[in-house]
Amino acid sequence: MNYSFRKATTSEIPAIWDILQQAIARRKRDGSEQWQDGYPNPEVVKKDVDAGHGFVLIEGENIIGYTAVLINDEPEYAKIIGEWLSNYDFVVFHRVAISENHLGKGLSKKILEFIEEFALSNNIYSVKADTNFDNIAMLKIFEKSGYKYCGKVYFRGGERRAFEKVLTKVN
């Protein structure tokens, strides 16, 4: 399949929210506490898109995945209980979600590959992210994608596991 990854547009917010709602329900079915507190919500998605941080994974003409991608913008990461692998500029991503009817195709890993390309295209060699301790699917994706566990961070009162991948320059 041919996939593309680009900034989301305002008109795509309803499709993005549908995908996130599927992911929220999936987290609940998996027994995870992540995303069970009213976050994320449509306002969060609108803020992502309006700020230019919302990105979509596209197959043909269809939106099949979503994430928010930011540069050097996660204040909680300065309070890590542990230690990052690097202390230079970084890309951070949040809210990775894949459409229900596209699961099992390795698309979350594909989104991470696109995020790494985005980082390199901006001369940034670190990607940082976090997930809930009970989001087994995302923990496995981090492991398969070469992310290293660095410690714990806290969001909205909840403990999260923090990961980083240091990228190498491609000549």
Automatic annotation (TrEMBL):
UniProt keyword Transferase present: yes
Keywords: Acyltransferase, Transferase
GO molecular function, one term: acyltransferase activity, transferring groups other than amino-acyl groups
Gene3D superfamilies linked to this entry: 3.40.630.30
Domain N-acetyltransferase: 3-170
Signal peptide stretch: none
PANTHER family, alphabetized: AMINOALKYLPHOSPHONATE N-ACETYLTRANSFERASE-RELATED (PTHR43877:SF2), AMINOALKYLPHOSPHONATE N-ACETYLTRANSFERASE-RELATED-RELATED (PTHR43877)
Protein name: L-amino acid N-acyltransferase YncA
Source lineage: Bacteria, Pseudomonadati, Bacteroidota, Flavobacteriia, Flavobacteriales
